[in-house]
Specification:
0% strand, single chain, mainly alpha, 162 residues, 41% helix, signal
Length: 162
């Protein structure tokens, strides 16, 4: 009878330890507000009285700013006046123009860098430009359909002569 109690107690103890180990660690380090933590703190002078710490300056952790959500900034167009809507449309158009200007600048630089890279590759010894065997604007000769081709599903077979 005692062995059953002992087995039951050990089982409960093992289950409690297993559950405790399986729990994720929820401890967090306390963070001081950013205005209370000096950023440029001079290193303390070593003293002969006490032991010196391996890290004289603890790392400074700046607290993140309050998260801003776009939902808080966005306003429904139905709630705006006509003047506010016109101002918003003008603002969007100016932003669009700025983005298009940036895009053109990026594409221009991209073309310039690609041309420089092509020129550099072409200047390597043994590299000669390879011309395609046919004109680029024309399809390759093997893909030109013929009217009597047996594989052409749209061709009309010729009538046999009698």
């Amino acid at each position: 009878m005692k062995s059953r109690y002992l087995i039951a107690a050990c089982t409960v103890l093992l289950a409690a330890v297993g559950i405790t180990i399986a729990q994720p660690e929820t401890r967090t380090r306390p963070v001081a507000p950013p205005d209370l933590v000096p950023v440029d703190r001079p290193a303390p002078a070593p003293t002969a009285v006490g032991p010196t710490l391996p890290f004289p300056n603890p790392p400074v952790v700046n607290a993140p700013a309050a998260p801003t959500t776009s939902a808080a900034k966005e306003v429904k167009p139905e709630d705006l006046t006509i003047d506010q809507l016109l101002d918003a449309v003008e603002k969007f158009e100016s932003q669009k123009a700025e983005l298009e200007k940036k895009q053109r600048a990026f594409v221009k630089v991209l073309h310039l860098k690609a041309a420089l890279q092509k020129q550099r590759i072409d200047s390597l010894p043994g590299s000669q430009p390879v011309a395609p065997p046919y004109a680029v604007s024309e399809p390759p000769p093997s893909s030109i359909p013929t009217s009597n081709s047996p594989l052409d599903p749209f061709s009309i077979p010729a009538k046999p002569q009698r």
